[in-house]
Design a protein that fits this description.
The protein is mostly helical. It has a single domain, classed as MetI-like (MetI-like fold), CATH 1.10.3720. It is built from eleven helices and no strands.
Amino acid sequence: MRRSAFRRSLTLFWWLMVAFLYLPLGVIVLYSFNAANSAAYFAGFSLRWYERLLGNDQLLTALGNTLVLGVASSVIALVIGTLIGYGMYRHRRRKLGWLIALIYLPIVMPDIVFGISEMAFFITLDREFGVLGPSLATMIIAHVTFQIPFVALIVYSRFVGLDPTLFEAAKDLYASPFQRARHFLLPTLKPSLVAAFFLAFTLSVDDFVISFFTAGPENATLPIYIWGAIRRGVSPEINAIATLMILSVAIAAVISLLFNKESRRN
């Protein structure tokens, strides 16, 4: 009797936590279909705000910047993070605690500290050498710096799960380093690489603080655009933008989880 009551309590607690986490998102999605001109009340369903988004040049520019930033930074972080993850695996028996600390540091560091430090660094380079002024390039570099640790840890965890004798078997079969990478490492790491890419892309699309401090005047992303628009008041159009962002991030997260599941199963 006590066990069943405890289970019911846990189930109730679970659903309360789910409601606490997702009801605010549900409200945003609901009011993005609001027929009223104000987000203060709901007057019926309408797609007018999504139609207005298609004619908003500033929004489309911000969307383009977001996609370019997300894809470019994720590809660069994927390449560098994979190499770092492989290096961590190859030298895992050495005392490299300081290296692990450096990998985790960008993950635990507050975004505002990271963003301000990146901004100060780029401003110094621009003032002293005339390079890397605030632009889309500086945003890509800044995003790569906080994406690399996530990619490296995902790839490293995949390497740790492999049988070490597989590497020796590939050498015994006289496979060259290029052949080992092409026929063994890349197919084995494929689920982890795809998951790492989508995770990095999700982090890039979702980021506001670091993008805000490193962006140029003409390089606003969707989070920056939303922040600027919401200062004039919350409108159903803002809810529509947020809904599309929620959908895109959710799709990327689901794909990442599916590839992680496939990686564990294999």
